[in-house]
Design a protein that fits this description.
Its main location: nucleus. One of its GO terms (biological process) is DNA repair. GO terms for molecular function: RNA binding. The chain is α+β, with helices and mostly antiparallel strands and about 300 residues long. The chain folds into two domains: about 100 residues, RRM (RNA recognition motif) domain (Alpha-Beta Plaits, 2-Layer Sandwich); about 130 residues, RRM (RNA recognition motif) domain (Alpha-Beta Plaits), CATH 3.30.70.330. Helix content is about 35%, strand content about 20%. It has seven helices and twelve strands. A hairpin with a 5-residue loop joins strand 2 and strand 3. The longest helix has about 40 residues. The two termini are about 70 Å apart.
Length: about 300
C-alpha cells in the first residue's frame, strides 16, 4: 500500500530560498508528508541543468485538508518580495513509460514504520504540569561514603553499609532501593525514594555531612550518569580472598566457643564447679580487620 499523495505545486518562489525555509513556509498549512522509505519530508525545489533553482517546488501533505488550506492561504502570499502561486500538483508522464523506473512497492517493514510514524505525529500528548519532576529526581546519589580500601579489608561491609543507609534514610521517607557501588572509587551509594519530597529532604540533610573524616557529596541523580565500575581480575581475587578470610574468621570463632563450652563442661564434671580455662576469653587474632561501618547519623555538620 503506497501512501496517499496530497501535493501542491508552488511557483514564483525566491531563487535563494533554502529547503528549511521552504519547509517552514509550507508547514503553515499542515504537516509535511514524510517519505515512507527515507522518513525525510517530501519536499522538492526544482533546479535547472546547471543546478540553479528555478523558483518552483512541490510539497506533499499528510492531510488532504492541508492542500485546500494552502490554496486559500499561501496562494498570493508575498515571500521575500515575491508573490507566490500555489496550485494542486498534477503528475504527468514525461516521455514513454519505462517499467524499470517504476518505484517498488513498500515492504512490510517499511509499511509498519510508516504507520508508526504517522501515528506518532498525530498522537495526543498531555502537557506536563508546571511542577513536573522527572522520575530520576527520586534517586539520591551519595559520594565519599566509603573507600575502596575499606571494602577490601572488610568483606561484610557491603551488606552492612546497605543496611545502615536503608535504616538512616528511612527517616526522610519510604526507601524503595539502595545500591552500593563497591567498585566505584568515589564511594558511591544511590538511594531511591518513593517521592521527590523525600529525596529533596535527604539531599538537604546529608549533603556536606562528615562521616569518618570524609565529607559527603549528596545530590539528585541526573538520570544519565552510570556509577557501576567493572571489577578487574586482580580486585576480584582480592575480594574473594577477603571474603574467604571473613568466613574463616567466623568459623574459627565458632570453634573456639565450642571448645570453651566443652572444656568448661569437663571441668564441671570433675570438680563440680565451673572455672574458665586460662586464655579462653581471649579471641585469636583474625586476618580480617573489622571495619567500622560508616554512620550517616554521625557528625551532623
Amino acid at each position: 500500500m503506497e501512501e496517499k499523495v496530497h501535493a501542491v505545486y508552488v511557483s514564483n518562489l525566491p531563487t535563494d530560498i533554502t529547503m528549511d525555509e521552504f519547509k517552514e513556509f509550507m508547514s503553515k498549512c499542515g504537516v509535511v508528508q514524510p517519505d515512507a522509505r527515507t522518513n525525510k519530508p517530501k519536499l522538492k525545489l526544482y533546479v535547472d541543468e546547471q543546478g540553479q533553482q528555478k523558483g518552483d517546488g512541490r510539497c506533499c501533505y499528510i492531510k488532504k485538508e492541508s492542500v485546500d488550506l494552502a490554496l486559500s492561504i499561501l496562494d498570493g502570499y508575498v515571500l521575500k518580495g515575491k508573490e507566490v502561486h500555489v496550485e494542486k500538483a498534477r503528475f504527468e508522464l514525461k516521455g514513454e513509460f519505462d517499467p524499470s523506473k517504476k518505484r517498488k512497492k513498500l515492504s512490510s517493514a517499511q509499511k509498519k514504520r510508516y504507520m508508526e510514524n504517522q501515528n506518532r505525529i498525530f498522537e495526543w500528548r498531555p502537557e506536563k504540569p508546571r511542577n513536573y519532576r522527572p522520575l530520576s529526581d527520586c534517586t539520591v546519589v551519595i559520594k565519599n561514603l566509603f573507600t575502596l580500601e575499606m571494602m577490601m579489608r572488610n568483606a561484610a561491609l557491603l551488606l552492612d553499609l546497605k543496611e545502615e543507609v536503608q535504616q538512616s534514610c528511612s527517616k526522610y521517607g519510604v526507601v524503595k532501593k539502595v545500591v552500593v557501588y563497591d567498585n566505584n572509587p568515589e564511594g558511591v551509594v544511590t538511594v531511591t525514594f518513593e517521592t521527590t519530597d523525600s529525596s529533596d529532604m535527604a539531599v538537604k540533610m546529608l549533603n556536606g555531612r562528615l562521616v569518618d573524616g570524609r565529607r559527603l557529596e549528596v545530590a539528585l541523580w541526573d538520570g544519565k550518569t552510570k556509577y557501576k565500575v567493572e571489577e578487574s581480575e586482580e580486585d576480584r581475587k582480592r575480594r574473594l580472598e577477603s571474603w574467604q578470610n571473613y568466613i574463616k574468621g567466623e568459623s574459627d570463632d565458632d570453634d573456639d566457643e565450642k571448645d570453651r563450652k566443652k572444656t568448661g563442661s569437663e571441668e564441671k564434671t570433675e570438680s563440680g564447679s565451673v572455672s574458665a580455662p586460662q586464655g579462653a576469653g581471649d579471641k585469636e587474632e583474625s586476618d580480617v580487620i573489622p571495619e567500622k561501618r560508616p554512620k550517616l547519623d554521625d557528625n551532623p555538620e
